[in-house]
Amino acid sequence: MTATTGFGEGRTGARLAELRAEGRAALVGYLPVGFPDVDRSIEAALAMVEAGADVVELGVPYTDPVMDGPTIQHAVEAALEAGTRVADVFRVVSAVAATGVPVLVMTYWNPVLRYGVDRFAADLAAAGGAGLITPDLIPDEGAEWLAAADAHGLDKVFLVAPSSTVPRLASTAAASRGFVYAASTMGVTGERTQVGPRAAELVAATREAGAGHVCVGLGVSTGEQAAQVARFADGVIVGSALVRPLLTDAPWAERLTALRAVTAELAAGVRGARAEVGA
Amino acid sequence: MADVADSLQDTQGPYYGDFGGRFVPEALIAALEELEAEYRSAIVDPAFLAELERLQREYTGRPSPLTEVPRFAEHAGGVRVLLKREDLNHTGSHKINNVLGQALLVKRMGKKRVIAETGAGQHGVATATAAALLDLECVVYMGEEDTQRQALNVARMRLLGATVVPVTIGSRTLKDAINEALRDWVANVDDTHYLLGTVTGPHPFPEIVREFHKVIGNEARAQVLERVGRLPDVVAACVGGGSNALGIFNAFLDDDVRLVGLEAGGDGVDTGRHSARFSGGAPGVLHGAKSYLLQDDDGQTLPSHSVSAGLDYPSVSPIHAWLHDSHRAEYRPVTDDEAMEAFRLLCRTEGIIPAIESAHALAGALVLGRELAAQGRQDAVVLVNLSGRGDKDVATAARWFDLVDEEDIAKAATTEGSSL
To answer: What region holds the Tryptophan synthase beta chain-like PALP domain (chain B) (predicted)?
Structure first.
């Protein structure tokens, strides 16, 4: 942290820099708050950390998740049916942040707007959260959030896509803190048989446009894919593949075991990626 | 008329007062910018405007007539009531105005595929129609519940060559159909245009849809001047997303004319079962724009309710939100009961079966007329946008007024279905 930039690369960026020094990318694991209920969503996030997630992304359940595919849609719908409230997010953040990993909250914009942007930022900071990922808020519309994030020392993770123009890559990189979230493909969250071929180009272009750290999300579901992305990105973001083992009818303990197994496979992929290249 | 610089007409986005904007994933920004650039060049291109005007005249049947309804007006305190007859357009509502304009833009952009959302099916039918006319692939997203309630409109779209995709997540209604259309658009934006059906959504959609509907008000203003010799005192229109209302309001924004939007009050605003965003909602963001919204304390979207599927939507145009907050237009709820009474009254007194959406505007005109008469203004002129015809609503009305038993409706539907 320097006096001139205020928060430097942010808490998440600092962790990514440490991992870069260790010669590897980060595994960023997503789970929705409140699925299947608030307490068990804490257990699931902690299991994910134990099994090797470096950064946790907690989703705020929302009625209209336009950037999410069927797996995450079904989980957040169940979370809302179970009575999850926006304020529950802070309890989950607090429990997961106690492990020491950076905890980002992924949220569509209206719940934050309704809660009060500055109040949300203050409560997130008080809970030990690192910042926000905002899939339907571009920096152009985010003046209130940019101010609140600076006031409370939070990371601001905005998205870029294969369709982003060079000027927009630059303005998005300049507005972000922590990392820039590069969507690997044009589409919504979900598992895919291969990671978009434009992902590596997008990461390079985003760095060229000024981003310090770039993590890649959308479509990564296997250790092999994670390794592939980890060779060129600072972090690999996985959502649907981690939610899927929790969506079954199996007893909860078995679902947690399955979640740990998927996380461990992805973590191994991330850790082995550059060693293979160097060999 | 005010100076052009002071004019409220044709106000450009992305913001209208505190409302509007582009609250969408970054992935869509390039497409929105391409669309805006194409739109701005098209509306000053004489060839584009000539082709649009030709289609409006030869295909849609514009200008739509203005009809005075004196027997109906007897129930409105005796003021004069004039109807702008958008129900007589091809496909039966105002929706075709916007669809033809956007479909011509799609051709200019060189895209081959259009997607659309629909609730009752009116916008879906209009989009399928324009896609057939202009040789575009068409996919329409429709909540599963609506595909069941509006089975004949599903058949209509399929007859026109469109693919209808039932949406089975969330509340399975219009808002979820829009979510699914947005997901499709993000994935296929290179060759696909999202042909949005109302004056909502991210900039530039509110501006574009208003542009293609403003012909309603331009025609009506001239027709009223010619028929009555002066401007109307009040213009009334129903407001779901708000496209027909903005279409007729736009031409009068700089005049000393009251503009009244009628929202669906459902079972009553106090019951919580309604679609009255201005009476029962609060500012928020949904589907790309900041506007008034039905939402709970957590910012979760609340389900809307109305007897009219076309008004059954939890948000509203950011341009209406701006006109509301600046007090240039006023918005009032009309309950299901009031709308259906006005529906029946127009059928019986004038031989016109209106869409249930438009019946909300008629109900508003009855109340406004009586208020004006009570102020000694029997000479007042009320212009109502009759935005659509009620053929699609006959089954709903038959049930509402208990005109036939359920078995007969089911039988009739089966017979009609098998004869298609």
So the answer is: 61-385
